[in-house]
Amino acid sequence: MSISDEERRVFTERDLRALSTADRDADPAAERRAWRHLGDELGRVLCDRYEQGPPASAESLVSPDRCPVRTAIVLRARTRDIRERVLGHRAAVGRAFRVLETPCRGDGRYRRAEALIALSLAAGQARCLGNRLTLLPTPVPPRPGALAEALGTALAESGRALDAAQRRLRASAEPGRTIPATAALAAAGSAARLATCLEEEIRAEAIDASDTDLSHVDHLDLPLLAGVVWSRTTIWPDTLAPLTRRHSNRVAPGVYQIRATHP
After folding, report:
1. Using CA atoms in the order 102, 107, 108, 114, what is the torsion angle rounded to 10 degrees?
2. What's the pLDDT tens digit per position in 169-185?
3. Among 105-119, 157-171, 241-255, the range of highest mean pLDDT
4. S-S: 147 plus which of 55, 198, 219, 234, CB 3.0-4.6 Å?
């Protein structure tokens, strides 16, 4: 969610000519149009890059199949990925509002544009995360399903609150204290708590991988597999097999369980 100097330069250079003639005293309407274009353009392009970038490893674990073990592992991976991204969204929302209170290069108009960009990025991120919830494999157990639904609602509320903050900032003569952050921060905080609860609920579901072929499941790691039960007939990916043996406890003849913590 940070805006690099290079990314800012690419878009601002195209608009500098308009900004240089859009003096607030000479033509306030032109100034507002120029900054609005800059904020919208940069926010849209960076959000598109975020949404269309390389897929997260959780999304490329396996092709859809009817194996409940593989489905459960995919569910763990995707809820972990969503939790990490929602926590990042909460931080991004806080940064977006801090832009208005933090001195930066340039005058108040520059700070105003920076805030518009940050708010636009955070709103786009909320919508992107809401879309990611549709990638959860089914069936989802009832309680995690309810948490996922509530998380989608919280992310939608966060996006709406950020959109409202953008509108108020555009209409406000003086940015800063006139733009309330309470609604957006509350929605983002609620989303973070729900995402954490969702992952915990999914991880609490027992997974028995005995007699299961997991050799073609990519991007597995020991934290993801904590608590999974497996047997001598479980087939692991070649790179993971020695690790699972080293970090498992024997719970019955020929049956093992991966430890929850690893040194």
Report:
1. -60
2. 877 755 444 577 889 99
3. 241-255
4. 198
Hey, what amino acid is at 182? T
Count of H-run helices and E-run strands, the chain: 7, 3
Tokens of 261: 């913590």
Cβ neighbours of residue 124 closer than 8 Å, sequence gap 6 or more = 43, 44, 46, 47, 50, 51
Distance in angstroms (rounded) separating the CA atoms of residues 35 and 44: 14
DSSP 8-class letter at 223: T
Q: Strands 248-252 and 255-258: what pairing?
A: antiparallel
Identity of the residue numbered 84 = E
Q: Tokens 């890059």 appear where?
A: 49
**How far is CA 185 from each of CA 112, 127, 162, rounded to the nearest angstrom?**
19, 16, 9
Residue spans per domain, the chain = 5-204, 206-263
pLDDT tens string 188-210: 999 999 999 999 999 999 999 99
